[in-house]
Amino acid sequence: MGSKDKNPRKKKNLGEKVQEEPSKEICPEDINKLVFEEPEKEIRPEDEHDTEKFEISINFAQNGKVWTRNEIEDDDGIFSFSVYKEIDHESDDPDPETISECLKRPDWEKWKMAIQAELLSLNKRSVFGPIVTTPENTKPVGHKWVFVRKRNEKNEVTRYKARLVAQGFSQRPGIDYEETYSPVMDAITFRFLMSLAASQNLEMYLMDVVTAYLYGSLENEIYMKIPEGLKMPEDLKSKAKEICSVRLQRSLYGLKQSGRMWYNRLSEYLLSKDYVNNAICPCVFIKKSSSGFVIIAVYVDDLNMIGTQKEIDDARTHMKEEFEMKDLGKTKFCLGLQIEHFQDGIFVHQSNYTKRVLKRFYMDKATPLSTPMVNRSLDVEKDPFRPCEDNEEVLGPEVPYMSAIGGLMYLANCTRPDIAFATNLLARYSSSPTRRHWNGIKHIFRYLQGSIDLGLFYPKNSKCVLVGFADAGYLSDPHKARSQTGYVFTIGGTAVSWRSQKQTLVATSSNYAETIALHEACRECVAPVYDSSHTRIKWNITEKEPTKIFEDNSACVTQLKEGYIKSDRTKHIPPRFFSYTQELQKNQEVDIEYIRSSDNAADLFTKALPTTVFKKHVHSIGMRRLQNCEKKRFYLFQGEIMLRYSFS
Question: Which residues cross the membrane (predicted)?
Answer without folding.
Answer: none
